[in-house]
Design brief:
globular
């Protein structure tokens, strides 16, 4: 989604969200009349029954086309929708 490095060096905390949520959110932001607004961000599919990640965030094969990384400050806003 980003070209080059999307985050500044001073950014320290990040979160992951489903890529489908991000795509839908960006569609709505760019054209709210033509697209529905996503009302809830759900990351529960990223966790097993023990509340551990079900994928390796450092492995491109595990994350490609399913998640995206966002800044913690963006996550704080989105999780309160």
């Amino acid at each position: 989604m980003y070209e080059g490095t999307p985050f500044a060096q001073e950014d320290e905390s990040f979160a992951i969200i489903p890529i489908d949520f991000l795509r839908g959110w960006l569609l709505w932001l760019n054209s709210p009349v033509d697209h529905i607004r996503f009302n809830k961000l759900d990351n529960s599919s990223f966790l097993c029954e023990h509340d551990l990640l079900i994928f390796d965030p450092n492995c491109p094969l595990d994350t490609e086309m399913t998640i995206t990384v966002i800044r913690q400050s963006d996550w704080d806003v989105l999780r309160n929708l």
